[in-house]
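FAQ: What does a multi-protein file look like?

Like this. Sequence, then C-alpha coordinates, then the next protein.
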Amino acid sequence: MNEAQIDLAHTVALGLIDDEDHHAIQTIINSEDPTLCTEFLRELRDTREALAALSDATSTPPPPSLRTRLLAAVNTEEPPLAI
Protein backbone atom coordinates (compact mmCIF):
# COMPACT_ATOMS: atom_id res chain seq x y z
CA MET A 1 0.00 0.00 0.00
CA ASN A 2 1.27 3.46 -0.78
CA GLU A 3 1.14 6.52 1.47
CA ALA A 4 -1.95 7.96 -0.26
CA GLN A 5 -3.85 4.72 0.35
CA ILE A 6 -2.81 4.71 4.00
CA ASP A 7 -3.97 8.32 4.32
CA LEU A 8 -7.27 7.32 2.71
CA ALA A 9 -7.76 4.55 5.28
CA HIS A 10 -7.17 7.11 8.04
CA THR A 11 -9.65 9.49 6.41
CA VAL A 12 -12.27 6.75 6.27
CA ALA A 13 -11.64 5.84 9.93
CA LEU A 14 -12.20 9.48 10.90
CA GLY A 15 -15.41 9.64 8.85
CA LEU A 16 -14.13 12.46 6.67
CA ILE A 17 -14.66 10.99 3.20
CA ASP A 18 -16.06 12.88 0.23
CA ASP A 19 -17.16 11.79 -3.27
CA GLU A 20 -13.58 11.60 -4.54
CA ASP A 21 -12.64 9.42 -1.57
CA HIS A 22 -15.60 7.11 -2.26
CA HIS A 23 -14.27 6.54 -5.77
CA ALA A 24 -10.76 5.83 -4.47
CA ILE A 25 -12.11 3.39 -1.89
CA GLN A 26 -14.11 1.52 -4.52
CA THR A 27 -11.01 1.32 -6.69
CA ILE A 28 -9.07 -0.30 -3.85
CA ILE A 29 -11.86 -2.67 -2.83
CA ASN A 30 -12.59 -3.70 -6.42
CA SER A 31 -8.90 -4.10 -7.20
CA GLU A 32 -7.76 -7.39 -8.65
CA ASP A 33 -5.00 -7.34 -6.04
CA PRO A 34 -6.51 -9.06 -2.97
CA THR A 35 -3.48 -8.10 -0.89
CA LEU A 36 -4.16 -4.39 -1.48
CA CYS A 37 -7.77 -4.74 -0.32
CA THR A 38 -6.74 -6.79 2.73
CA GLU A 39 -4.03 -4.29 3.71
CA PHE A 40 -6.42 -1.36 3.26
CA LEU A 41 -9.09 -2.99 5.44
CA ARG A 42 -6.45 -3.92 8.05
CA GLU A 43 -5.18 -0.32 8.16
CA LEU A 44 -8.76 0.93 8.50
CA ARG A 45 -9.46 -1.51 11.36
CA ASP A 46 -6.19 -0.70 13.14
CA THR A 47 -6.83 3.03 12.85
CA ARG A 48 -10.36 2.70 14.22
CA GLU A 49 -9.04 0.62 17.14
CA ALA A 50 -6.34 3.22 17.86
CA LEU A 51 -8.89 6.03 17.79
CA ALA A 52 -11.18 4.10 20.15
CA ALA A 53 -8.30 3.45 22.56
CA LEU A 54 -7.31 7.12 22.45
CA SER A 55 -10.90 8.15 23.10
CA ASP A 56 -11.15 5.81 26.09
CA ALA A 57 -7.84 7.01 27.50
CA THR A 58 -8.61 10.71 27.20
CA SER A 59 -12.34 10.88 27.92
CA THR A 60 -13.54 12.89 30.88
CA PRO A 61 -17.02 13.02 32.36
CA PRO A 62 -18.95 16.26 31.93
CA PRO A 63 -19.10 18.59 34.91
CA PRO A 64 -22.06 17.87 37.22
CA SER A 65 -23.52 21.32 36.56
CA LEU A 66 -23.83 20.76 32.81
CA ARG A 67 -27.25 19.07 32.95
CA THR A 68 -28.67 21.86 35.11
CA ARG A 69 -27.25 24.58 32.81
CA LEU A 70 -28.57 22.87 29.68
CA LEU A 71 -32.05 22.41 31.10
CA ALA A 72 -32.12 26.03 32.26
CA ALA A 73 -31.08 27.19 28.78
CA VAL A 74 -33.80 25.08 27.15
CA ASN A 75 -36.43 26.38 29.54
CA THR A 76 -35.59 30.02 28.76
CA GLU A 77 -36.06 29.58 25.01
CA GLU A 78 -39.23 30.90 23.48
CA PRO A 79 -41.55 28.23 22.12
CA PRO A 80 -41.87 28.12 18.33
CA LEU A 81 -44.74 30.08 16.85
CA ALA A 82 -47.57 28.15 15.20
CA ILE A 83 -48.15 29.42 11.68
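And here is the next protein:
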Amino acid sequence: MQTLSIRDILEEKEAGLDLELLAGAPGLETLISLPRIQKPGLALAGFGDSLHPDRIQVLGSTELSFLANMPADEAEKRMRELCQRRVCCLIVTKNQPIPKFLVEQAESFGTPLLRTRLLSSDFISLLTRFLEERLLPTSTLHGVLVDVLGIGVLIQGKSGIGKSECALELVLRGYRLVADDVIRVRFKLPSVIFGEGMDLLHYHMEIRGLGILNIKHLFGVSSVRERKKIDLVVELVKWGDDKDCDRHGLDETTYQLHGVELPYVRIPVAPGRNIGTIVEVAARNQLLKEMGYHSAREFQGLLEKRMAEAAHLHAHSIIGENLE
Protein backbone atom coordinates (compact mmCIF):
# COMPACT_ATOMS: atom_id res chain seq x y z
CA MET A 1 0.00 0.00 0.00
CA GLN A 2 1.30 3.44 -0.96
CA THR A 3 1.59 5.99 1.86
CA LEU A 4 2.41 9.67 2.07
CA SER A 5 3.28 11.82 5.07
CA ILE A 6 1.75 15.21 5.81
CA ARG A 7 5.28 16.62 5.55
CA ASP A 8 5.46 15.36 1.95
CA ILE A 9 2.24 17.24 1.15
CA LEU A 10 3.46 20.40 2.89
CA GLU A 11 6.76 20.38 1.00
CA GLU A 12 5.22 19.59 -2.39
CA LYS A 13 5.90 22.47 -4.81
CA GLU A 14 4.97 21.26 -8.29
CA ALA A 15 1.30 20.51 -7.49
CA GLY A 16 0.57 24.18 -6.68
CA LEU A 17 -0.96 23.49 -3.27
CA ASP A 18 0.74 26.55 -1.72
CA LEU A 19 0.61 25.34 1.89
CA GLU A 20 2.04 26.82 5.07
CA LEU A 21 2.27 25.25 8.53
CA LEU A 22 0.52 27.07 11.39
CA ALA A 23 0.56 24.49 14.20
CA GLY A 24 0.94 20.82 15.06
CA ALA A 25 4.45 20.23 13.70
CA PRO A 26 4.86 16.95 15.70
CA GLY A 27 2.14 15.39 13.55
CA LEU A 28 3.84 16.02 10.21
CA GLU A 29 5.09 12.44 10.03
CA THR A 30 1.51 11.10 10.13
CA LEU A 31 0.95 8.84 7.14
CA ILE A 32 -2.12 8.77 4.91
CA SER A 33 -2.99 6.02 2.45
CA LEU A 34 -6.30 7.16 0.92
CA PRO A 35 -6.67 9.82 -1.80
CA ARG A 36 -9.91 11.06 -0.25
CA ILE A 37 -10.69 14.39 1.39
CA GLN A 38 -13.45 15.40 3.80
CA LYS A 39 -15.08 18.63 4.88
CA PRO A 40 -15.96 18.12 8.57
CA GLY A 41 -19.14 20.18 8.66
CA LEU A 42 -21.31 17.40 10.10
CA ALA A 43 -18.68 16.53 12.72
CA LEU A 44 -18.54 20.18 13.85
CA ALA A 45 -22.34 20.15 14.10
CA GLY A 46 -22.14 17.25 16.56
CA PHE A 47 -22.41 14.23 14.25
CA GLY A 48 -19.01 12.79 15.07
CA ASP A 49 -19.72 9.36 13.57
CA SER A 50 -19.53 10.89 10.11
CA LEU A 51 -15.85 11.81 10.61
CA HIS A 52 -13.08 9.84 8.88
CA PRO A 53 -9.87 10.65 10.81
CA ASP A 54 -7.66 9.06 8.15
CA ARG A 55 -8.77 11.66 5.57
CA ILE A 56 -7.45 15.20 5.28
CA GLN A 57 -10.01 17.63 6.72
CA VAL A 58 -10.57 20.85 4.75
CA LEU A 59 -12.01 23.86 6.57
CA GLY A 60 -13.52 26.42 4.21
CA SER A 61 -15.59 29.56 4.74
CA THR A 62 -18.70 27.56 5.70
CA GLU A 63 -16.97 25.64 8.49
CA LEU A 64 -15.17 28.67 9.95
CA SER A 65 -18.35 30.81 9.76
CA PHE A 66 -20.24 28.06 11.57
CA LEU A 67 -17.65 28.08 14.36
CA ALA A 68 -17.60 31.89 14.50
CA ASN A 69 -21.37 32.02 15.09
CA MET A 70 -21.11 29.68 18.08
CA PRO A 71 -20.38 30.74 21.64
CA ALA A 72 -16.60 30.71 22.07
CA ASP A 73 -16.59 27.91 24.64
CA GLU A 74 -18.84 25.71 22.46
CA ALA A 75 -16.70 26.30 19.35
CA GLU A 76 -13.58 25.39 21.31
CA LYS A 77 -15.28 22.23 22.59
CA ARG A 78 -16.22 21.17 19.05
CA MET A 79 -12.66 21.64 17.83
CA ARG A 80 -11.29 19.76 20.83
CA GLU A 81 -13.62 16.85 20.08
CA LEU A 82 -12.47 16.93 16.46
CA CYS A 83 -8.78 16.86 17.35
CA GLN A 84 -9.36 14.14 19.95
CA ARG A 85 -10.39 11.86 17.07
CA ARG A 86 -6.75 12.10 15.93
CA VAL A 87 -7.50 13.46 12.48
CA CYS A 88 -4.45 13.29 10.25
CA CYS A 89 -4.49 16.93 9.17
CA LEU A 90 -6.53 20.16 9.09
CA ILE A 91 -6.23 22.56 6.15
CA VAL A 92 -7.82 26.03 6.07
CA THR A 93 -8.50 27.52 2.61
CA LYS A 94 -8.72 31.09 1.20
CA ASN A 95 -6.02 32.39 3.56
CA GLN A 96 -8.75 32.90 6.17
CA PRO A 97 -7.85 34.18 9.64
CA ILE A 98 -7.42 31.27 12.06
CA PRO A 99 -9.28 31.42 15.39
CA LYS A 100 -6.88 31.28 18.33
CA PHE A 101 -8.62 28.27 19.88
CA LEU A 102 -8.16 26.32 16.63
CA VAL A 103 -4.40 26.89 16.69
CA GLU A 104 -4.26 25.98 20.38
CA GLN A 105 -6.19 22.73 19.98
CA ALA A 106 -4.14 21.66 16.95
CA GLU A 107 -0.92 22.37 18.84
CA SER A 108 -2.16 20.59 21.95
CA PHE A 109 -3.01 17.36 20.11
CA GLY A 110 -0.14 17.52 17.61
CA THR A 111 -2.58 17.78 14.70
CA PRO A 112 -0.97 19.48 11.68
CA LEU A 113 -2.81 22.71 10.89
CA LEU A 114 -2.05 24.07 7.41
CA ARG A 115 -3.36 26.97 5.37
CA THR A 116 -3.58 27.75 1.65
CA ARG A 117 -4.57 30.85 -0.29
CA LEU A 118 -6.62 28.75 -2.76
CA LEU A 119 -10.41 28.52 -2.81
CA SER A 120 -11.81 25.32 -1.32
CA SER A 121 -13.05 23.93 -4.66
CA ASP A 122 -9.75 24.63 -6.45
CA PHE A 123 -7.67 23.28 -3.58
CA ILE A 124 -9.69 20.08 -3.21
CA SER A 125 -9.39 19.45 -6.95
CA LEU A 126 -5.60 19.95 -6.93
CA LEU A 127 -5.07 17.94 -3.74
CA THR A 128 -7.25 15.05 -4.94
CA ARG A 129 -5.33 14.85 -8.21
CA PHE A 130 -2.00 14.95 -6.35
CA LEU A 131 -3.03 12.25 -3.87
CA GLU A 132 -4.35 10.00 -6.63
CA GLU A 133 -1.02 10.32 -8.44
CA ARG A 134 0.97 9.45 -5.33
CA LEU A 135 -1.23 7.02 -3.41
CA LEU A 136 -2.93 4.74 -5.92
CA PRO A 137 -1.20 1.39 -6.61
CA THR A 138 1.98 1.45 -8.71
CA SER A 139 4.28 -1.24 -10.05
CA THR A 140 6.98 -1.73 -12.65
CA LEU A 141 7.07 -4.20 -15.50
CA HIS A 142 9.32 -5.13 -18.41
CA GLY A 143 8.24 -4.13 -21.90
CA VAL A 144 7.74 -1.21 -24.27
CA LEU A 145 4.85 1.26 -24.29
CA VAL A 146 3.97 3.09 -27.52
CA ASP A 147 1.16 5.48 -28.45
CA VAL A 148 -0.28 4.26 -31.76
CA LEU A 149 -3.19 6.32 -33.10
CA GLY A 150 -4.13 7.26 -29.55
CA ILE A 151 -4.12 3.61 -28.43
CA GLY A 152 -1.59 2.89 -25.70
CA VAL A 153 0.03 -0.39 -26.80
CA LEU A 154 2.04 -2.28 -24.18
CA ILE A 155 4.43 -4.65 -25.99
CA GLN A 156 5.69 -7.58 -23.93
CA GLY A 157 7.72 -10.70 -24.59
CA LYS A 158 10.90 -12.50 -23.66
CA SER A 159 14.22 -10.67 -23.76
CA GLY A 160 15.65 -10.41 -27.27
CA ILE A 161 12.42 -11.18 -29.11
CA GLY A 162 12.31 -7.73 -30.75
CA LYS A 163 10.13 -5.48 -28.59
CA SER A 164 12.37 -2.42 -28.92
CA GLU A 165 12.92 -2.97 -32.66
CA CYS A 166 9.14 -3.14 -33.13
CA ALA A 167 8.71 0.10 -31.16
CA LEU A 168 11.48 1.78 -33.18
CA GLU A 169 9.69 0.92 -36.42
CA LEU A 170 6.48 2.40 -35.02
CA VAL A 171 8.36 5.59 -34.08
CA LEU A 172 9.70 5.76 -37.66
CA ARG A 173 6.07 5.64 -38.83
CA GLY A 174 5.28 8.73 -36.77
CA TYR A 175 3.99 7.16 -33.57
CA ARG A 176 5.24 8.05 -30.09
CA LEU A 177 7.41 6.21 -27.59
CA VAL A 178 6.34 6.38 -23.95
CA ALA A 179 8.80 4.01 -22.28
CA ASP A 180 11.25 1.26 -23.13
CA ASP A 181 12.53 -1.63 -21.01
CA VAL A 182 11.14 -0.60 -17.59
CA ILE A 183 7.63 0.87 -17.36
CA ARG A 184 6.13 2.38 -14.23
CA VAL A 185 2.46 1.45 -14.14
CA ARG A 186 -0.06 3.50 -12.16
CA PHE A 187 -3.67 2.67 -11.37
CA LYS A 188 -6.04 5.61 -11.59
CA LEU A 189 -9.69 5.74 -10.57
CA PRO A 190 -12.15 4.49 -11.61
CA SER A 191 -10.38 1.70 -13.59
CA VAL A 192 -7.65 3.17 -15.76
CA ILE A 193 -4.03 2.04 -16.04
CA PHE A 194 -1.36 4.57 -17.00
CA GLY A 195 2.20 3.79 -18.02
CA GLU A 196 5.23 6.07 -17.93
CA GLY A 197 8.99 5.84 -18.16
CA MET A 198 11.39 5.74 -15.24
CA ASP A 199 13.21 9.03 -14.63
CA LEU A 200 16.64 7.81 -15.71
CA LEU A 201 15.38 5.91 -18.78
CA HIS A 202 12.96 8.50 -20.13
CA TYR A 203 13.10 8.85 -23.95
CA HIS A 204 15.88 6.23 -24.20
CA MET A 205 15.75 2.93 -26.06
CA GLU A 206 18.21 0.05 -26.31
CA ILE A 207 18.73 -1.42 -29.78
CA ARG A 208 21.11 -4.35 -29.85
CA GLY A 209 24.05 -3.50 -32.10
CA LEU A 210 23.51 0.25 -31.70
CA GLY A 211 23.32 0.60 -27.91
CA ILE A 212 21.35 3.25 -26.05
CA LEU A 213 19.54 5.78 -28.25
CA ASN A 214 17.82 9.01 -27.22
CA ILE A 215 14.61 8.93 -29.25
CA LYS A 216 13.71 12.51 -28.37
CA HIS A 217 17.02 13.83 -29.74
CA LEU A 218 16.96 11.60 -32.82
CA PHE A 219 13.36 12.19 -33.92
CA GLY A 220 12.22 15.30 -32.03
CA VAL A 221 9.79 16.02 -29.23
CA SER A 222 6.80 14.81 -31.27
CA SER A 223 8.20 11.24 -31.15
CA VAL A 224 7.82 10.85 -27.36
CA ARG A 225 5.30 11.49 -24.61
CA GLU A 226 5.45 11.46 -20.82
CA ARG A 227 2.68 8.96 -20.03
CA LYS A 228 -0.16 7.14 -21.72
CA LYS A 229 -3.24 5.17 -20.77
CA ILE A 230 -2.71 1.49 -21.56
CA ASP A 231 -5.46 0.26 -23.91
CA LEU A 232 -4.00 -2.92 -25.41
CA VAL A 233 -1.42 -5.51 -24.37
CA VAL A 234 0.53 -7.27 -27.16
CA GLU A 235 2.78 -10.21 -26.34
CA LEU A 236 5.39 -11.24 -28.89
CA VAL A 237 6.08 -15.00 -28.92
CA LYS A 238 8.45 -17.17 -30.97
CA TRP A 239 6.96 -18.90 -33.98
CA GLY A 240 6.22 -22.44 -32.82
CA ASP A 241 5.20 -21.26 -29.35
CA ASP A 242 2.00 -19.82 -30.83
CA LYS A 243 -0.39 -22.68 -30.10
CA ASP A 244 -2.64 -20.32 -28.07
CA CYS A 245 -2.63 -17.55 -30.68
CA ASP A 246 -6.04 -16.54 -32.00
CA ARG A 247 -6.66 -17.62 -35.60
CA HIS A 248 -10.06 -16.02 -36.24
CA GLY A 249 -10.28 -13.00 -33.91
CA LEU A 250 -13.42 -14.09 -32.06
CA ASP A 251 -11.74 -14.88 -28.75
CA GLU A 252 -11.72 -11.93 -26.35
CA THR A 253 -8.71 -12.66 -24.14
CA THR A 254 -7.64 -10.19 -21.46
CA TYR A 255 -4.57 -9.29 -19.42
CA GLN A 256 -5.11 -8.33 -15.77
CA LEU A 257 -3.14 -5.43 -14.34
CA HIS A 258 -3.97 -3.99 -10.89
CA GLY A 259 -7.37 -5.65 -11.16
CA VAL A 260 -8.17 -4.03 -14.53
CA GLU A 261 -8.91 -6.30 -17.51
CA LEU A 262 -7.07 -5.10 -20.65
CA PRO A 263 -7.51 -6.46 -24.21
CA TYR A 264 -4.68 -8.89 -24.99
CA VAL A 265 -3.28 -10.45 -28.17
CA ARG A 266 -0.34 -12.80 -28.84
CA ILE A 267 1.65 -12.27 -32.04
CA PRO A 268 4.09 -14.94 -33.32
CA VAL A 269 7.48 -13.61 -34.43
CA ALA A 270 9.34 -15.18 -37.36
CA PRO A 271 11.75 -14.04 -40.10
CA GLY A 272 9.87 -12.18 -42.81
CA ARG A 273 6.98 -11.07 -40.59
CA ASN A 274 6.70 -7.29 -40.27
CA ILE A 275 5.83 -7.09 -36.59
CA GLY A 276 5.59 -3.30 -36.59
CA THR A 277 2.87 -3.46 -39.23
CA ILE A 278 0.99 -6.19 -37.36
CA VAL A 279 1.10 -4.24 -34.09
CA GLU A 280 -0.13 -1.11 -35.89
CA VAL A 281 -3.04 -3.08 -37.37
CA ALA A 282 -3.79 -4.53 -33.90
CA ALA A 283 -4.05 -0.95 -32.58
CA ARG A 284 -6.31 0.08 -35.50
CA ASN A 285 -8.49 -2.97 -34.88
CA GLN A 286 -8.74 -2.12 -31.17
CA LEU A 287 -9.76 1.41 -32.10
CA LEU A 288 -12.56 -0.02 -34.27
CA LYS A 289 -13.70 -2.29 -31.43
CA GLU A 290 -13.90 0.70 -29.07
CA MET A 291 -16.11 2.38 -31.67
CA GLY A 292 -18.41 -0.66 -31.69
CA TYR A 293 -17.21 -2.39 -34.87
CA HIS A 294 -15.86 -5.96 -34.62
CA SER A 295 -14.50 -7.28 -37.94
CA ALA A 296 -14.33 -10.96 -36.96
CA ARG A 297 -17.85 -11.00 -35.55
CA GLU A 298 -19.20 -9.26 -38.65
CA PHE A 299 -17.51 -11.89 -40.83
CA GLN A 300 -18.91 -14.68 -38.63
CA GLY A 301 -22.39 -13.22 -39.03
CA LEU A 302 -22.05 -13.06 -42.82
CA LEU A 303 -20.70 -16.62 -42.90
CA GLU A 304 -23.57 -17.98 -40.80
CA LYS A 305 -26.08 -16.14 -42.99
CA ARG A 306 -24.53 -17.58 -46.16
CA MET A 307 -24.51 -21.10 -44.68
CA ALA A 308 -28.15 -20.76 -43.66
CA GLU A 309 -29.10 -19.62 -47.18
CA ALA A 310 -27.16 -22.51 -48.74
CA ALA A 311 -28.84 -25.00 -46.39
CA HIS A 312 -32.26 -23.59 -47.25
CA LEU A 313 -31.63 -23.86 -51.00
CA HIS A 314 -30.33 -27.40 -50.62
CA ALA A 315 -33.38 -28.46 -48.60
CA HIS A 316 -35.66 -26.72 -51.07
CA SER A 317 -34.17 -28.61 -53.99
CA ILE A 318 -34.72 -31.94 -52.23
CA ILE A 319 -38.14 -31.49 -50.65
CA GLY A 320 -39.74 -29.21 -53.25
CA GLU A 321 -41.97 -26.20 -53.23
CA ASN A 322 -43.97 -27.26 -50.14
CA LEU A 323 -41.08 -26.54 -47.71
CA GLU A 324 -42.34 -24.19 -45.01
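Q: Is there any per-entry metadata?
A: Some entries carry free-text notes. For the entry above: Residues 294-324 form one domain.
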